[in-house]
Design a protein that fits this description.
The chain has 87 residues and is mainly α. It has 3 helices and no strands. The chain has helices spanning 23-41, 53-66, 70-82. The radius of gyration is 26 Å and the shape is elongated.
C-alpha cells in the first residue's frame, strides 16, 4: 500500500496579507509610547513577596479607591518607611 502521489495532493491556499492596523488603535498606542520610554529609563529592581489572597485583594481595592496602581501605592509605602537613606 503506497501513499497518494504528490501530483494528487491539493495545493495550500494562501492566507493573504495581515489586515492593516485600526487607525484609532495605532493613535492610542502612540500616545502611550513616550510615557513607556520614560518609565523604562528609570532603573528598577523587582521584589517578590508572598501575601495571602485576602491581603492582595485589600491592597488592590485600596489602590483602586486611591486612583493608583498597587505597585505605585506599595512603592510609596516602602519609600516612606525605608527611603531617605537612614539606617
Amino acid at each position: 500500500m503506497t501513499g497518494p502521489s504528490s501530483s494528487s495532493t491539493p495545493k495550500r491556499a494562501s492566507i493573504g496579507r495581515k489586515p492593516a492596523a485600526d487607525p484609532a488603535s495605532t493613535w492610542v498606542r502612540q500616545a502611550d509610547a513616550p510615557e513607556n520610554v520614560a518609565k523604562a529609563s528609570i532603573f528598577t529592581a523587582r521584589l517578590t513577596i508572598d501575601v495571602t489572597p485576602a491581603l492582595r485583594g485589600r491592597i488592590k481595592v485600596i489602590a483602586f479607591e486611591r486612583g493608583v496602581t498597587a505597585a505605585e501605592m506599595l512603592r510609596a509605602l516602602l519609600e516612606c518607611e525605608y527611603g531617605g537613606g537612614q539606617s
